[in-house]
Amino acid sequence: MTPATALAPPLPRNTAAVGVRATARITAAARSGGTVLPVLDGDGPFELRRLRSRGSEARVCVVGAMSAPLGGDRLRIEATAQQGAALHVTSAAATLALRGPTTAPATYDVHLTVEDHAELRWLPKPLISASGSNLRQTWTIDLAPTARLVLREELALGRTGEPPGRVTTRLTVRRGGRVLLDQAADYGPGAVGWDSPAVLAHHRATGQILIVDPGFAPEPPTFQALSETSQDGLAVLTPLAGPAALITAIAPDGLRLRHLLNTAHSTRLSL
């Protein structure tokens, strides 16, 4: 033991050093009219399974191999759809953010890259923020000018009959190197105004579907309110400054949120 090691103080409890570090990597490449997966590498709580292809589209399911994210965990998923590839990613079950052995927040970073004439459909099951959890989630997405993307995210604040945990999210989307969308949200205990009438009010589930499609360029989608009453949730379709549209929804619970998003997507946008 060196003197420096001998004198080093022990790590305090609740340090951010506690927790799982894990990265999953997916790469899809176009081959002979279809899409193959030259990289499919899971780690820690991420188990990646190949699903049956649909046409030229390769499909991957993310399976949770252990409870995560917990406080102190550092999780990351990287997915790339190379030129001309078509990739569909889903998950086997909802992701449950739980209180961990440390007061440090968990982080869950998703980095997506879609190259020219490639398509990525990122459609996981919901994220559930359990009471006492603290999660910081980021999405960083880089799209080529001719790339297509469907991104869906759903958040349920608390399990049935319990208060929510804390969730801080940021979504940054760049297309051709220029920012297409950059948004942040903060929900749960300690977040300012998250349950006010200006944000969620009495609702406890929120989600969105982002669609980027060069085919929107000649005729962009128009702004639409997609629901008539607040009892079962509210949704709105907003065109973005580019060939893209964003469906945003809030609802009393995850089940009604999913129904609202499914209906808005299937009846208003076909991609």
Written overview of the protein:
The chain is mainly beta and 271 residues long. It has one domain. It is 7% helix and 49% strand. The protein is built from two helices and 18 strands. Strands 3, 4, 6, 7, 9, 10, 12, 15, 16, 17 and 18 form an eleven-stranded mixed sheet that branches. Strands 2-1-5-8-11-13-14 form a seven-stranded mixed sheet, with no helix packed on it. Strand 16 (224-225) and strand 17 (234-239) form a beta hairpin. The longest helix has 15 residues, at 254-268. It is globular and about 50 Å long. The termini are far apart. Residues 1-16 have low confidence and may be disordered.
Considering DSSP H and I runs of 4 or more, what fraction of the residues is helical?
A: under 10%
**Can you tell me the overall shape?**
globular
Structural class: mainly beta
Low-confidence runs of at least 5 consecutive residues: 1-16
Q: Which assembly state applies to the chains in this document?
A: single chain
Question: How many distinct domains?
Answer: 1
Average residue-wise pLDDT: 89
Residue share in β-strands: over 45%
Largest sheet properties: 11 strands, mixed
Count of separate DSSP helical elements:
2
Number of strands: 18
Spatial extent as radius of gyration: 20 Å
Subcellular location: Cytoplasm
Function: Required for maturation of urease via the functional incorporation of the urease nickel metallocenter.
GO molecular function: nickel cation binding
Main location: cytoplasm
